[in-house]
Amino acid sequence: MAKNILDTGIKLVKNVNRYNFGKGSLSELNIILDNRRELTINENNKRAVIFFIDEYFKNNMEPLSKIIFLNNDKIFYVNTKDEPHTEVIDEYKKEIINLGLEDPCAIVGIGGGISLDTSKAVSNILKNEGKASDYQGWDLLKNQGVFKIGIPTISGTGSESTRTCVLTNSSTGLKLGMNSDYTVFDHIIMDSELTKTVTRNQYFYTGMDAYIHCFESLNGNYRNAIGDAYSRESMRLCKEVFDSEEMMSDINREKLMVASYVGGCAIASSYVGVVHPFSAGLSVVLGIHHCIANCIVMRAMEQFYPMVYNEFWNMVEKQKIVIPAKVCDKLTDDEYECLYNSTIIHEKPLTNALGSNFKEILTKDNVINLFKMM
Amino acid sequence: MAKNILDTGIKLVKNVNRYNFGKGSLSELNIILDNRRELTINENNKRAVIFFIDEYFKNNMEPLSKIIFLNNDKIFYVNTKDEPHTEVIDEYKKEIINLGLEDPCAIVGIGGGISLDTSKAVSNILKNEGKASDYQGWDLLKNQGVFKIGIPTISGTGSESTRTCVLTNSSTGLKLGMNSDYTVFDHIIMDSELTKTVTRNQYFYTGMDAYIHCFESLNGNYRNAIGDAYSRESMRLCKEVFDSEEMMSDINREKLMVASYVGGCAIASSYVGVVHPFSAGLSVVLGIHHCIANCIVMRAMEQFYPMVYNEFWNMVEKQKIVIPAKVCDKLTDDEYECLYNSTIIHEKPLTNALGSNFKEILTKDNVINLFKMM
Predict the structure, then answer these.
(1) Contact A116, A152 (CB under 8 A)
(2) What is the pTM of this model?
(3) ∠B163-A234-A223 over CA atoms, to 5°?
(4) pLDDT at A27
(5) Which member of A29, A199, B11, B206 has the lowest number of beta carbons within 10 Å of its beta carbon?
(6) Residues B21, A227 contacting (CB under 8 angstroms)
């Protein structure tokens, strides 16, 4: 069943080319950048590096103090209030060209999904003509982007290992990634020291992005042995971390970093399920960030994923995490309509989860009632 | 403990750049090769592809019938009686140069560890001056080799995802790989249709290469979260396959292919333990192939890995596999001495398994007695 819509083009997988792993591995960045800088324009002018760094670090640079910045490098501190918009990516491109830095030797993203996705998108758009929105979709990029390095400072989104960078186009409302082999990082550094200062709630929400994606895949109609293997291991690591007494211990921060990476690897050869379409609704209509939106959606998932539902809420309780409630309590009819539309549009994951007749289960009334449970 | 010898240079990992996965994915090879061939020397002369194919297929080409060979391509059928020797690699290089094919657009290895390692070594040596033996060791290669594609037709060695190709130098007896990022395949195709015709015993021996490597890693002193994750999942898949009623069913052949790939990924960030040093002894002194040698060594591993020992022999029994016995029964004192020496030389895995005082446990008498149990 449902072969046509699901069995499409995910047989070829592009890996992150190289990775460093382990506490303290951030210092390897300088070696990589030194090698890249040697690709000089001329003897007096080593090529610049452009950094996209989560704005949190602007006044907290200590964790990044090992990084050697040179004079002609450019640092952008990424605002994480909003998830990345195509217009913002276009503005970065313009500013970089104005600075004469359109051919940097590397782009380095340091942060969570927002900063990493921003760095991936800018890397792509610097080597492909036009605007970011031209490349939202599948395999639209024509050229390899700038050499890009990803350094996650929070674990769970898997952005470090995926072939997408999710962008919202404000004028059309479209939230869609640049899905392309060119979007994959050339190099990533997974240093669990960098996730020490994350708040407990955020650590949980983001970690659960991996967990939720993986159980959606493992409960889907579309399955394959390699996606399953990555999903199972990622989920197992998440459970170990969030079932433990101290989810943010050194070893658990390492484990969650691995869960995020292999969770990202799973995405290449699997589909999500019911959670993500509803979560997309919350993001698009109410502007709620992806990871916390996923957790909010879990309030209404008992009927679809009963076992995981219990497991999830036990972990929430054990770690004393606050999940917002009643976020869809008093909306207008138009807003509920929008929520329904921006959920039901996600045919692939819903077919994966519920079969091709998913609209019979997810009637408009049912969808709105589910949102009212959140 | 034992930090000095074990904590060395395995923080940076090079992945296979791209992979295809799934039944029937072999046909993707033609697309990849078409793209590579377009890198023409001149309009009339598309560049050749060099194939290294397990000799088994010479008279059984049906499983490979989808592959489009062009006139100027060269096929070498790889003799799998012996594991690869440096001299054989040098001879391939000479012959390829004599044929005027020293700049092929791709090298394709099709087979088990022997054929894959051969193709990796030839790819390297065509772009690096001198002999294969010059590059046995760590990070000695200077240049990127020919673009190389690996297509496993049996699962377990992990050669498809590792950064080494194990070679024996006949003149020195040294068995050591070209360990280098350059050794990693650029592309691999994992098509479980290709493992259908493997004999049951060989399927088991080779699959157990992944299983054994992984439990050695997970029982070692040197551990890290990413190596552990890969090892656990690989081992879990192997157990599912070999604990099942039909280890060679379609789904189990897919699973074992994943176990092999992620097992290979684990090797990059982990060490083996007691089995591999003893197994190397059997290979070097008695010429027994690696995978079956590992299984033979398991006869003497109860004291080191009691739980896995039972699990392993239960799987042997369940699948009705023949593991040779008494292979070290009537050797000369000199031969036992050689076995001891070629085992005890493997300091890293033995330190990983038993600590830096491993020679107190593995006295010469003990080692010889263990061999006598095999």
Answers:
(1) yes
(2) 0.94
(3) 90
(4) 94
(5) A199
(6) no
pLDDT of residue B46: 74
What integer is the mean pLDDT of A19-36?
94
For residue A5, what pLDDT is reported? 61
Which of B7, B8, B11 to mutate to test binding with chain A, by most A CBs within 10 Å of its CB? B11
Interface ipTM = 0.92
Strands B18-21 and B175-179: unpaired
The mean pLDDT value for B172-191 works out to: 92
Higher pLDDT, A144 or A5: A144
Judging contacts by C-beta atoms under 8 Å, the chain B residues touching residue A28 are 11-12
Distance, in Å, from the CA atom of A195 to the CA atom of A215, rounded to the nearest integer, reads: 24
**In which residue are the tokens 């996650």 written?**
A152
Q: What is the pLDDT of residue B43?
A: 59
Which residues of chain A make contact with B261, given a CB cutoff of 8 A?
226
CB neighbour class for B316 (10 Å; exposed up to 12, middle 13-18, buried from 19) = middle
CA distance A327 to chain B (A): 37
Out of A12, A19, A190, whose CB is closest to B20?
A12
- Of the ranges A77-86, B43-52, B205-214, B224-233, which one carries the lowest mean pLDDT score? B43-52
Contact B13 A22 (CB under 8 A): no
Q: Rounded to whole angstroms, how far apart are CA atoms A179 and A163? A: 6
CA-based nearest residue to A226, from B214, B264, B198, B182: B264
Question: A231 — contact with chain B (CB < 8 Å)?
Answer: no
SS3 A79: coil
Nearest CA in chain B to A9: B20
Q: Evaluate whether A27 touches A66 at the Cβ level (below 8 Å).
A: yes
Is A223 in CB contact (< 8 Å) with chain B?
A: no
Instruction: Report the percentage of chain B scoring pLDDT > 70.
Output: 96
